[in-house]
Amino acid sequence: MNKGRFGIHGGQYIPETLMNAVIELEEAYNKYSKNPEFIAEFNDLLEKYAGRPSLLYYAEKMTDDLGGAKIYLKREDLNHTGSHKINNVLGQVLLAKKMGKKRVIAETGAGQHGVATATVAALMGMECEIFMGEEDTKRQALNVFRMELLGAKVHPVKSGTATLKDAVSETMREWTARVADTHYVLGSVMGPHPFPTIVRDFQSVIGKEVKKQILETEGKLPDAVIACVGGGSNAIGLFYDFINDKDVRLIGCEAAGLGVDNPKNAATMANGKLGIFHGMKSYFCQDEYGQIAPVYSISAGLDYPGIGPEHAWLSDIGRAEYVPITDKEAVQAFSYLSKTEGIIPAIESSHAVAYAMKLAPTMSKDNIIVINISGRGDKDVAAIARYMGVDIYE
Amino acid sequence: MSNINKVFANGKAFIPFITAGDPNIDVTEKLILAMERAGADLIEIGIPFSDPVAEGVVIQDASLRALNGGVTTDKIFDMVRNIRKISNVHLAFMTYINLVFTYGTQKFLSTCKELNIDALILPDLPFEEKEEVLDECKKNNVSLISLIAPTSNERISMIAKEAEGFVYCVSSMGVTGVRSEIKTDVGEMVNLVKKTKNIPCAIGFGISTPEQAKKMAEYADGVIVGSAVVKIVEKYGANSEKYVYDFVKSMKDAISK
């Protein structure tokens, strides 16, 4: 067993054609991630371009209404491009540029990662192509146009279930075809080593800020931090700095779609088995023969049959908990946060809000919960309207 | 070691690939036997995977058709059991690591031994991860085939050193599929392998015509053709036997001249 392991998970299960590319990436990352100039440049972009640090907002009305733990919202939705995705993209595209790459490609589910990649490609003068499941191009038509506006070419992916997993497969295929001048900006803490490590490092700014902010405000660490999990990048970004703080509960909320007992779900921890797919050993929703399951969630960003290897490991060792949240619960949380705090969260982030709504009332008023609002919900308004039976078009 | 050396004992080897279960498993059985009659030296049986990241659209579609038709790893094993009652043709399985891992690596490979499978090809299991299955392959006399790509460069000698059976030289960047032109210097790839180890080399990815096959055979010990065969099956379905036979025969003839 070679590199990039989290317990038994992780690894580099990819075609030989890509091996030199990931080795080159790892070497470049090892070099630049310790280079003070690179770090300064990255931090400068986070501050001046993405708008960091993002706010840690005390949700007083929500806290009062639920009548338990104090609830704070980490406002990743206020970042430029409207989600946490920009953190990782700024890091990776900067790295790609240092490596002399001229072109970036990326998969996208909800379109947030695609928009972030197209944005940073525009900023840094890179050619950009985005692969998006055809089903998702319909669910998120505005984001498709947004990416095109930013100068990216968007390829609708028709294979398989035409959602996020197929977009990942297609981007891998494209990378195999053209690897010399192209960097694959993988959007989550998944795929072959070194991606799970690189993406986690670039996202870990979330948890670092939360820790500093909560200590300044409350003088103590939170009792629980909660984030939604598809591949798991916003969650690991929030969790990472708290892993050694054993009293802080780390809670990932996965998409249970119509319910964990209904075939239409994407709850990998609840229903998945150990497997090897998309370059990594981890847990996957699959059948008895290892065929990957056609998963479902209302949230295009969580509609993925696997989970990042570090999450699989954190679950194995009992350090993090993973809970399923249904479409219905997520939509209720979406409406609830909008009405209660005047903040419209992404439908992905609404999964985390939904679990906090269950957990907070069971905790005392001395306890603190931090919810990662990983993205803003503007992109979801039309889809939620349709879910609620309101016939509007974007 | 398996008997795979014999694959390369009959002049340049022709190695066709077929997606098992497309259009159905009974037809696959007939096609394998037809390819044997047409002179195939080794037949790669593709166990379809739902998400084949190394395949182009032709084999992706075939995999989907096969899976939608209800084929499973067990049904494919049963089909090979039938073949083994009447044929000793050299066979390899080509599939993805998750299908082997989830079936149970030990159980998968002991079944390979029972079915007298010569080789296993897993395009998403690179050199760095081959321990995942290597012990079981050795225990069951199945050669785990190493792939080298146009991007492998200095990795070639490292891979060749530990290669078994034959080395699968990927002729083109990208995924499987028919290509009008092959630009890679495959001759140089083969040379780098042979410098390290005296092992047969077979070239695959993108080869579809007798002319291409003949040209590639000049550089190597064998030629692998997948998508072109699968395309015939896509076109003629249950009636493909004759067309597949004719195609395989034309390819074997072309590289034998």
Description:
The complex is a heterodimer of chains A (394) and B (257). With 394 residues, chain A is α/β, with parallel strands linked by helices. Chain A has helices spanning 16-32, 36-48, 60-66, 85-98, 112-124, 134-139, 141-149, 164-177, 195-203, 205-218, 233-239, 268-271, 309-316, 327-341, 347-359, 381-387, and strands at 5-6, 9-13, 56-58, 70-75, 103-108, 127-133, 153-157, 182-184, 224-229, 249-257, 273-277, 279-284, 320-326, 368-373. In chain A, the strands form three sheets. A six-stranded mixed β-sheet of chain A has the order 3-4-14-9-10-13, with helices on both faces. The radius of gyration of chain A is 19 Å and the shape is globular. Chain B has a single domain (12-256), classed as TIM Barrel, CATH 3.20.20.70. Chain B is built from eleven helices and nine strands. The two termini of chain B are 30 Å apart. The mean pLDDT of chain B is 95. At the A-B interface, β2, α1, α8 and β11 of A face α2 and α4 of B.
Gist?
The complex is a heterodimer of chains A (394) and B (257). Chain A has helices at residues 16-32, 36-48, 60-66, 85-98, 112-124, 134-139, 141-149, 164-177, 195-203, 205-218, 233-239, 268-271, 309-316, 327-341, 347-359, 381-387, and strands at residues 5-6, 9-13, 56-58, 70-75, 103-108, 127-133, 153-157, 182-184, 224-229, 249-257, 273-277, 279-284, 320-326, 368-373. By secondary structure, chain A is an alpha/beta fold.
